[in-house]
Structure formats: structure tokens, C-alpha cells
Design brief:
The complex is a heterodimer of chains A (265) and B (525). With 265 residues, chain A is mainly α. Chain A has a single domain (62-264), classed as Orthogonal Bundle (MetI-like fold). In chain A, 74% of the residues lie in helices and 0% in strands. In chain A, α6 runs antiparallel to α8. The longest helix of chain A is centred in the last third of the chain and has 37 residues, at 171-207. In chain B, α8 (181-196) links the parallel β8 (169-173) and β9 (200-205). Helices cover 34% and strands 24% of the residues of chain B. Chain B has three domains: 1-85 and 170-181 and 195-225, P-loop containing nucleotide triphosphate hydrolases (Rossmann fold), CATH 3.40.50.300; 92-166, no CATH class; 285-381 and 436-520, P-loop containing nucleotide triphosphate hydrolases (Rossmann fold). In chain B, the strands form four sheets. Chain B has a six-stranded mixed sheet with strand order 7-8-9-3-10-11, sandwiched between helices. Chain B has 525 residues and is an alpha/beta fold. Classes of the chains: A mainly alpha (265), B alpha/beta (525). Chain A binds chain B through residues 158-160, 162-168, 170, 177-178, 181-182, 185, and chain B through 334, 336, 360-364, 366-368, 370, 372, 375-380, 389-390, 430, 434.
């Protein structure tokens, strides 16, 4: 079972990837087309996931929303890791005062709940897909930065870096050939785990009306639109929520699998 | 006298793999018998079978301690035996103690579990035990946690805990491995005293010299079987099995320089300018010189006014116990640490006094191998990549591997999948790849079994002759240093207490400390 789980994750991710890159393959209809006569239909063979208040097919909308949600998740993680690399490497490699300053700054950021930090950013720069992506990236950066810093500190003092010095290797060689690859190895797992988390966060922001705005087919925005009808028409919120969960679980399974593989080898 | 422990046809297997097969022995009260073998020979598993702690499948036609049948004993019965009737001194005192508890409490555990003493009585007994095992200032030590104690003190604490209930059988699994020579001598004396007082001792070790001090009978184990057994004197004087012979030959103590420790033939010395066949008479050019080196860490004088000179093709041995400053000296010589005063010159030019950028081009002239070879390799790299990086190209890797006695197909493997001896061979290959003049060897064989140690020492000896290398050879093991060195420095607390040609220093030591070290060094009878 433990060997199987990562493969389930990979299969789910592949499915999401197809939905993101070629949504037409899975759901050929137009996600924005309205059919007022067919509003609030329960899930059936005609409408697998049912329809919403304007009669739009929810299956089509969920599939077409995958691209936006994945893009937000991936770019937010990329922004987070990018910022974290800068801070983490500065703190881990720089002189002691720089390490002290950076670490204190990260601790201040840590004192805010991540979502609050993201909200703060959106308040200043206004809502929208781009700002919410950056906001999520910013909010996740301190956590990554701290992990990168501690990893750099460990690798930096490793005997094999000293052995490279004895062989006459320059500082840049040691940085590029030994330090960065060994730090990056542990990041890879972190990134996979982080994407799922970012998707959930970005959806939360859209749900609050701060990210993608209806009628755009984005999972968080769809959740938000279905909120009003939650008691009578459950399928409007259930299926976008299910996809958010699938993507989070799938990335986690793959991340865990990678983690265990790197531990075994 | 009837045997306290009686074992017949003991076999232990883990799943399909049989790690011990058909072992038989008896131990009488006041007798010490020893099991000797390399790591993986099954000796530790045999000892653990007596405690019911193997975790594998144990079969034996007889496995008895006194009147208890261990193979059939219930977990409760075994629990009563352990700590009360059978004391266990495990290998690696670093991990045998709970890091969060004061050692005094750890030692009191068997007293609390098996004894009837009051809390105050236990406290007094703990202090008494610590005094017995030779721990100075026992009241202070009992209240400290393991990380506040040195390796030797920790090992003594483990022994104190094992002998707390005056057990009738003491099982000692590599009790002195990785300890300094004088500490080792103290612990062996202590075990000998316990034996005289009537305890039966089962000693496990890879080191014949240690074993010959204590044991009256030997069992030599290899791949799960006893290949030879008998009275210690007889086995050492007249070994029957080739494996026993190779183990005896592997002990470097008391073996002259350039003599072989393994049966492999010596490499032909490369004909050099002076008379061939006389490896010590290479051109007497000074390749490395240290002048009044000093290094302090806080108030600790790690290296204090050390000077030496190393000539081409020769070995300078540095011997000292832990904390004597020998590793700091190695780091100063490798210019990994900046000396506070004094300097090192390499091939007649300044070495520590110039900036790193000026040094880098000359770094290939001086290489290094370390005690822990594995951690000196990038964990992501294969053996092939490590060597190709050191050579500056992949073409020479197979030849290089062969020159250190490894097969060319080990290039595709990762160092952590190799044995300890093979890892050290890879480290040596990497160090000689840039064709250095000098190799700094910091405890290169200290974590290896005696037989593997012999192979590595022979390899270093071969390479020295064929490549005209100069060695700075650092070890706490006087026997190893004596076997490898032309000249020697004896270090203590950061300074040199005695130096000179090896034969003179060890043949007629002047300083008390050197005399003490030599007296504590074990030799085969």
C-alpha cells in the first residue's frame, strides 16, 4: 500500500495536468455559457456534477478551472521558494550580522498568521488573481526560508565541503557543485508538498472575494458563489471543494513518496 | 567446577539469513573467554543470544545460564536475569546511555529494579561503584548527563551500571574500542579485577591484543562459524586456521616499519634516484616544515609552540590522546585554520602566511584522509564522480581505483554502499589523484577492524614507496604510529612532550608521559 500511494498521487496529478492543459478534451462545452432554463439541476448523466444558478455545467467549470488553480498554486510556490532562497542563502552563507538580521526579520513575519499576511498585501495592492498569487507566495516564504537556512548551515559545515577545500576547489565551485545541489535535494520534496498548500490558500482568498472574481471558473470563486445555496444545492460547493482536496492530497502523496525514496536510496 | 554458562550448537538466523551457526562453549565462574572476529562475523549476535536480545530466531540444543534455560525462559525470567545475574557492557557508550538522564540515575537503575536498597543506600552505592571503576570526583559525575562526560568516562559509567548488582556473568561487547590507550588499559585492569573476584566474563572484540590480555580461551569467528578455538596461549603461539593467522599478522604493534601486515605481496618500489630498495634514503629534501605554531580556542591552548620538519618519502607520526591537539595541528597544516603565531612552509615556500587565493593553486601538493571517510564525500556523488572530479577527468578513474585495490566497477556505486575499508580506499584514491607530495592522515584507521586496518596500512605503505609520498600520520594508537613512522612527535595538551626518530623515542623514552603511553600499549604475547 505504501508503495502504491505515490502512484495514486501521480495518476491524480496527471489527470489534473490534462484538465489544466487541454480542458476541452474532458469537457468540450463552454464553461461560461448560461442556460437559465436548466438552473440548479442535481448531478445526473447529462450534468455529471449538476448545474449552478445560471444553468452552467459545474463539471465543465471545475475542469476548466483546473488551469487557473494549478497556475496559481505553482506560481505562488515558485514566488515563495524564490524569495526564501534569497533570504535563506543570505542568512546561511552571509556574515553573522546578516544572518542575525534576516532571521529576526523572518521571525517578525512568522508572528503573523500566513493568511493574515496575504490579506495585508491584498489590502495594499487590491484584489485579483495576480495579487492573490503574490500574496500567497509572500505568506509561505518565511517557512521555506527558515528550512533553507538551517539546511545551508548543516551542509556548509559538512566535512565534504572541507575535503573540497583541501583539493583546492574555489568558493564558487563548492557553492555550485556541492552546497546548492545538496540544499536543493531537500527543497524538491518541499516544493511538491507546497503546491497543494498554495492551491488551498489561493482558493481561500478567492472564496473571500479577494482573488479570482465570478463568473471566472476558478475553484475558490465557485465555492464562494455556491455558498449562498449551500443548504439547498450542495453540489455547487461540493465538487469544486472535492477538486481542491484532490489536488492537495495528490501533491502530498507524491511529496511523501519522494521523501521516502530519498531516505531509502 | 561446573560451568555457569553452557552453550551447544547455537544458531541464530534473521529471516532466511543464518548469521550464527553451530556455536558451542562453556564459561566457568572466574573465567574469561573471548570471541574474536571482524564486524559481521556474528560475534555480537552470539553474545546477545545469552540475553535473549537477538530479535532473530534462536535454536540451540543447549543454551543455559546456571539452571535457567534461556531458550525457553519467559520474558519475565529473562528480565530478572538481565542486570542482576548478567551484566552487559555494550559497544558504543555514546548511545548506550540515555542523554536526558544523569548518569548516576542510570547506574542506580539495576539497584532499583533488582535490589532492596533505600534511595540513600543506592546513592552511596552509585558513588562507590563510580570510585571502583576509577571515575575521579564521583559525586559531581553522578549528577552529570552523558554529553558532559568524555568517551572514557561514559564507558566507565556503562561498566559501573553493568556491575552494580555484582553479576555472575559479565558480557563485554567491544568495551574499549575507540578509547584512548591509557583509558583502555584502565578498563581492562578493572575487568581483570572483576574476574579475579569471581565473575565470569564473555569478551567480544576484533582486537586480538585486547583479548589476549584477559581471556584464557579464544573462539575465533568468521562468517557465523567458529573456525578455531582453544586456550589463548596455544591459539596465539600456534594458530591452525589461516584466518587466525591473518588476524594475528594484522596487529601492527611491535611490527617493524615496512613489514607487511597482510599476506599480499609488497609493491615493487619505483626505482628512484638513490639506491633502489632503500625507501628511506630518498633525496632528503624538506617538503613540509612548521615553525612554532600556536592556536588557541578561547582560553584553551589547542596547539602550543609546535615545530617539526618532514622530508620527502618519510613519515612523521603524531601520537597523543584525545584533546592533545593533534587534529587541530592537522587543520593548521592543511591551512583550514589560521595559526595565531608561527607558520608552515610547503616545499620551501610560505603556506599559512599567504592568502587563500595564492594557496589554491598549490593545494594539490598536499592531500588529506580522515577518520570518517564517508562524511568526507558529497552524498550525492558516486565513487566515479568523486574520483573524476579529483582527477579533472573520467579517463584515469579505473587505473586509480585499481591502484588502491578496488575493482573498476565500484565507480558506479555510492560510497555509503561500500564497507568501511573500501570507503577509506576511495578516500585515499581521491587524495592521491592530484599527485600530491604530502598526505595528512588524521586517524585513518581508527574506526576500522584490525584486519581491515592492516590492509589500509599496507596500502599506504605501498603508495608511499611507489609515489614517494610524505606522510603526516596522526593517531592515538601508539602501535599503529610506531609501525608507520620514521620520526615521531608525542603530543599532550597542545604541546610536544617528546620528539625524534621513532626507534629512539619508543626504545628509550625520556618523558614520563611517553613511558606511560608505552606501558599502556597492548602487545601480543
Amino acid at each position: 500500500m505504501r508503495r502504491l500511494l505515490p502512484w495514486i498521487g501521480i495518476a491524480a496529478l496527471l489527470f489534473l495536468l490534462i484538465a489544466a492543459l487541454a480542458p476541452g478534451l474532458l469537457a468540450p462545452a463552454d464553461p461560461l455559457a448560461i442556460h437559465p432554463t436548466q438552473s440548479f439541476r442535481a448531478p445526473s448523466f447529462a450534468h455529471l456534477f449538476g448545474t449552478d444558478e445560471s444553468g452552467r455545467d459545474i463539471f465543465t467549470r471545475v475542469i476548466h478551472g483546473t488551469g487557473a488553480s494549478l497556475l496559481i498554486g505553482v506560481s505562488a510556490t515558485a514566488i515563495g521558494i524564490g524569495l526564501a532562497l534569497v533570504f535563506g542563502l543570505l542568512a546561511g552563507l552571509g556574515p553573522r550580522w546578516l544572518d542575525f538580521g534576516t532571521t529576526r526579520f523572518l521571525e517578525v513575519l512568522f508572528a503573523f498568521p500566513g493568511l493574515l499576511l496575504a490579506l495585508l498585501f491584498i489590502v495594499v495592492y487590491g484584489p485579483g488573481v495576480v495579487t492573490s498569487t503574490i500574496a500567497v507566495g509572500l505568506a509561505t516564504a518565511p517557512g521555506y526560508a527558515r528550512i533553507i537556512r538551517s539546511r545551508v548551515l548543516v551542509v556548509r559545515r559538512a566535512p565534504y565541503l572541507e575535503a573540497a577545500t583541501v583539493l583546492g576547489r574555489s568558493w564558487w565551485f563548492r557553492l555550485w557543485r556541492h552546497l546548492l545541489p545538496n540544499v536543493a535535494g531537500s527543497l524538491f520534496v518541499l516544493v511538491t508538498l507546497g503546491i497543494g498548500q498554495s492551491i488551498v490558500w489561493a482558493s481561500s482568498l478567492s472564496y473571500l472575494g479577494l482573488g479570482a472574481v465570478p463568473p471566472a471558473a476558478e475553484w475558490g470563486a465557485m465555492l464562494s458563489a455556491g455558498r449562498t445555496y449551500l443548504t439547498s444545492f450542495w453540489w455547487m460547493t461540493f465538487f469544486p471543494g472535492l477538486f481542491i482536496m484532490i489536488s492537495a492530497v495528490a501533491t502530498t502523496l507524491v511529496g511523501r513518496g519522494l521523501q521516502e525514496r530519498s531516505r531509502d536510496s | 567446577m561446573t560451568a555457569l554458562v553452557s552453550v551447544r550448537d547455537l544458531s541464530v538466523s534473521f529471516g532466511e539469513t543464518k548469521v550464527v551457526s553451530g556455536i558451542s562453549f562453556d564459561i566457568e565462574p572466574g573465567q574469561c573467554i573471548a570471541i574474536v572476529g571482524e564486524s559481521g562475523s556474528g560475534k555480537s549476535v552470539t553474545a546477545r543470544a545469552l540475553l535473549g536480545l537477538t530479535g532473530g530466531t534462536v535454536t540451540a540444543s543447549r543454551l543455559r545460564f546456571d539452571t535457567t534455560d534461556i531458550a525457553d525462559a519467559s520474558p519475565r525470567q529473562l528480565q530478572r536475569l538481565r542486570g542482576r545475574d548478567i551484566g552487559f557492557i555494550s559497544q558504543g557508550a555514546l548511545v548506550a546511555l540515555d542523554p536526558l538522564r544523569p548518569v548516576g540515575r542510570e547506574i542506580a537503575d539495576p539497584l532499583r529494579l533488582h535490589g532492596s536498597l533505600s534511595a540513600a543506600g543506592r546513592q552511596a552505592r552509585v558513588l562507590d561503584l563510580l570510585t571502583q571503576v576509577g571515575v575521579p570526583d564521583p559525586a559531581l559525575r553522578a549528577s552529570q548527563r552523558p554529553d558532559e562526560l568524555s568517551g572514557g568516562l561514559r564507558q566507565r559509567a556503562v561498566i559501573a551500571s553493568a556491575i552494580a548488582m555484582q553479576p555472575r556473568l559479565l558480557i563485554a561487547d567491544e568495551p574499549t574500542t575507540a578509547l584512548d590507550t591509557t583509558v583502555q588499559a584502565g578498563i581492562l585492569d578493572l575487568l581483570e579485577r572483576l574476574r579475579v573476584e569471581g565473575a565470569a566474563i564473555l569478551l567480544i572484540s576484533h582486537d586480538l591484543a585486547v583479548v589476549s590480555r584477559l581471556a584464557s580461551h579464544l573462539l575465533v569467528m568468521s562468517t557465523g562459524r567458529v573456525v578455531e578455538s582453544g586456550p589463548t596461549q596455544r591459539v596465539l603461539a600456534d594458530p591452525q586456521h589461516p584466518y587466525t593467522r591473518s588476524l594475528i599478522a594484522a596487529v601492527p604493534t611491535g611490527r617493524p616499519r615496512f613489514s607487511r601486515l597482510t599476506s599480499a605481496p609488497a609493491a615493487e618500489p619505483v626505482p628512484t634516484d638513490p639506491a633502489p630498495g632503500e625507501p628511506t634514503s630518498f633525496e632528503q629534501r624538506e617538503v613540509l616544515a612548521a615553525d612554532r605554531l600556536c592556536k588557541r580556542f578561547g582560553s584553551l591552548r589547542a596547539v602550543d609552540d609546535v615545530s617539526f620538519s618532514l622530508k620527502r618519502g618519510r613519515t612523521l607520526g603524531i601520537v597523543g590522546e584525545s584533546g592533545s591537539g593533534k587534529t587541530t595541528l592537522a587543520r593548521l597544516v592543511l591551512a583550514l585554520e589560521r595559526p595565531e603565531s608561527g607558520d608552515v612552509s610547503l616545499l620551501g615556500e610560505p603556506w599559512t602566511d599567504v592568502p587563500e587565493s595564492a594557496r589554491r593553486a598549490r593545494r594539490p601538493r598536499i592531500g588529506a584522509i580522515y577518520q570518517d571517510a564517508l562524511s568526507s564525500f558529497d552524498p550525492r556523488w558516486t565513487v566515479g564522480r568523486i574520483l573524476a572530479d579529483a582527477l579533472g577527468g573520467a579517463a584515469g578513474v579505473p587505473v586509480l581505483l585499481e591502484s588502491v585495490g578496488l575493482s573498476p566497477d565500484s565507480a558506479g556505486r555510492r560510497p555509503r554502499h561500500l564497507s568501511g575499508g573500501q570507503q577509506q580506499r576511495v578516500a585515499i584514491a581521491r587524495a592521491i589523484a592530484p599527485r600530491p607530495d604530502i598526505l595528512v592522515c588524521d586517524e585513518p584507521v581508527s574506526s576500522l577492524d584490525v584486519s581491515v586496518q592492516a590492509q589500509v596500512l599496507d596500502l599506504l605503505d605501498d603508495l608511499q614507496r611507489s609515489l614517494r609520498l610524505s606522510y603526516l600520520f596522526i593517531s592515538h594508537d601508539l602501535g599503529v604510529v610506531r609501525h608507520m613512522s620514521d620520526d615521531v612527535l608525542v603530543m599532550r595538551d597542545g604541546h610536544v612532550v617528546e620528539s625524534g626518530p621513532t626507534g629512539a623515542v619508543f626504545g628509550a623514552p625520556q618523558h614520563e608521559y611517553t613511558k606511560g603511553l608505552i606501558a599502556a600499549t597492548l602487545q601480543l604475547p
